[in-house]
Amino acid sequence: MIKQRTGSKILAFFLLLSAIFAGCKKDNNNNPDPNLDFRTYKLFNYSSGAEVEAGNFRIDQLADGNARLTITISEPYRQDGINFDAVINTKDEAENELIFSYLGSVNGKTGSLIVNPVMGSGSNLPVKYSDLISKTGYYIKIMNGANVQATGEIK
User: Fold this and answer.
1) What percent of the chain lies above the pLDDT cut of 70?
2) How confident is the model over 86-127, as pLDDT tens digits?
């Protein structure tokens, strides 16, 4: 009888500890905080010769000061089964395009990509939010092979 009660108490104690630790969660500094800054910009497609809105991108400030970028391409510019390469570019004095950050592939079916955090291509270090939003002449470029699917300027 004593062994049964002791076993039940030990089991109850471990269940209580499990419940306490299950409620604890390690903080992740890569989640956007609603109290931190963010900027939203439009993406455009120029394939028809005119500027047509093709989606948007959002840059979020993370708790550690780094930047998170979310790209969303509008439905008419998505293509199931195709991924689009996304980069942050700038141009030098001779108008040559320079890649500031390779962002990865936008899913052609969903039209979305989340980069958390944005990494600099040259340094392979996280890009600070304040640095990214203060850049002039920098833009997001989404490529469908050699064709530009959408582009948007960071202002």
Assistant:
1) 77
2) 999 999 999 999 999 999 999 999 999 999 999 999 899 999
Tens-digit pLDDT profile for residues 9-35: 554 554 444 444 444 444 444 555 566
The three-point CA angle 122-154-27 to 5° equals 70
Instruction: Report how far residue 47's alpha carbon sits from residue 17's, in angstroms, rounded to the nearest whole number.
Output: 60
Q: SS3 of 58, please? A: strand
Q: Which two tokens stand for residue 96?
A: 């040559």
List b or e across 120-151, with b for residues whose CB sees 16 or more CB atoms inside 10 angstroms: beeeeebbbbeebbeeeebbbbbbbeeebbbb
**142 and 84 Cβ atoms separated by less than 8 Å:** yes
